[in-house]
Amino acid sequence: MSTFEGIVEEIPGISIDRFDGINTESAVLFLSHCHTDHMKGLDNERVQSSIIEDNKYLYLTSISATIIKNRYPILANNLKELTIEHANSVPVGDEYISVTCVPAGHCPGSVMFLFETKNACILYTGDYRMAASDFKKFKCFYDDFGLVKRIDKVYLDTTFFLESYQTFPKRQDSLAALCKIISDWTAADPENYVSLDLPAQYGYEYVFKEIYSRCLMPVHVSSDKFEFYSKIPELDKCVTTNPSVTKVHNWTYDGPSGKIRRIKLSALRWTSDNLKKGVIEVDQNYKFYVCYSTHASYQEGAALIEFLKPKNIHICVEQSDPADNLEMMILIDKHIRKIQVKEGKSQFF
């Protein structure tokens, strides 16, 4: 879960993914995606009134704008949609800054923000999951001579930036495994059904879409989740509040106990050691666990750093365990030192 406080010190006057506290003083607002830990304060009526009365704009993608318009219609006139993979000129005070949205692969509409000003080049990753090779495909990371731009600071999604989470399976592989479990079980008996346990309230758009595509049935969800997911383009058919039209339930559902297959998607339990056994585990109660991550693994995070070679890195997800936070700081220092050594610099920042 994001612990980023919203302020980018290199670009005074803007806030990203945080709208309460000191962020109410920012003149320009950005939203990387519509998950609750990146929207703190946006549901507050005083914050909404401040945005409207002060004529502030919230910059976001078209998909995120669709969600916000449905969720907070009062803000509809204060939304500015940004184009993807093209530089957008955004006024901040008396100047204009360049903002490029880079697809983040976390959920529909999620993006990274590449900010370029007179004095700094900053990448805010938000939540992301991207293969190492994919970073190199985006033209915005290269200058006019084809060289990788030097990034002054990366505000990094560090959810799994720990050596115990070296790699995660590709999401396509995880979803293929999940859908096979569902299909095999529901095909075996017309009375069989699946209880899908998802550890977080939101963030499973790709899961629902893949289940609908592969298993040919929507997922039964709560009315709150339906209200959220049904507003996302291409997801309206993938979720339902009617339990009778599907055999897959992400909601309390009373059915014959012998006919239920419980499946839990998670990433936290899947350390590198656990992954040696495969992407599926079954416990003594015959509950299935499938490894599925919408955040970058350690190796994916390290690949981003190796490619962009930033001067500095800001941790955007602090861990609950102080030892894990210390490990992250040590790993980040190691990567920064490695960059400096390669560039012939001996002085550490």
Automatic annotation (TrEMBL):
Keywords per UniProt: DNA damage, DNA recombination, DNA repair, Endonuclease, Exonuclease, Hydrolase, Nuclease, Nucleus
Positions of transmembrane segments: none
Gene Ontology annotations of biological process type: DNA recombination; double-strand break repair via nonhomologous end joining; interstrand cross-link repair; telomere maintenance
Locations listed in the record: Nucleus
SUPFAM superfamilies: Metallo-hydrolase/oxidoreductase
GO cellular component, one term: nucleus
GO molecular function, one term: endonuclease activity
InterPro entries: DRMBL, RibonucZ/Hydroxyglut_hydro
Domain DNA repair metallo-beta-lactamase residues, every copy: 266-314
Pfam families with a match to the protein in the record: DRMBL
Annotated family: Belongs to the DNA repair metallo-beta-lactamase (DRMBL) family.
Protein name: Protein artemis
Organism encoding this protein: Dendroctonus ponderosae (Mountain pine beetle)
Gene: 109535159
